Amino acid sequence: MNFNYTLIGQLLAFILFVWFCMRFIWPQLLSVLEQREKEIADGLNAASEGKRELEEAGVKKEEILKGAKKEAADLVNQANQRANQLVEDAKATALEEAERIKISAQSEVEQSAKRAREELRVEVATLAVAGAEKILNSEIDENKNSKIIEDLKEEL
User: Fold this and answer.
1) Average pLDDT over residues 104-132
2) Which has the least CB within 10 A, 77, 105, 110, 137?
């Protein structure tokens, strides 16, 4: 065997193997590698986009929380003001009612005093007539008696 022919045969087999790999296998490997590279790049872009959106969401969350806290504080202040107003209104109403009751009671006391004076006048007049009758030992007729009592009531 000749060493040169073996070397040339192996060289031709190797060249044929390289050409076959370059023609049929290498393009498929490159397309798979390019597709994988694209998927990795897309994944990295999506991750960075997600991270950015997460940061934006955190900022929005803080803004919303601040707004909600401010709104809650405003509502509490409004409720306190309304409660104070209701207390003041209740005080004013109670004072008005107390004044009305006081005036009503004073009016009732005055009416009771007038009634008591009238009753007292009638009793005094009756006692005066009875006393006068006993003193005079004579009876006065009823019409005169009533007239005298009315006159005494007027004087008293």
Assistant:
1) 83
2) 137
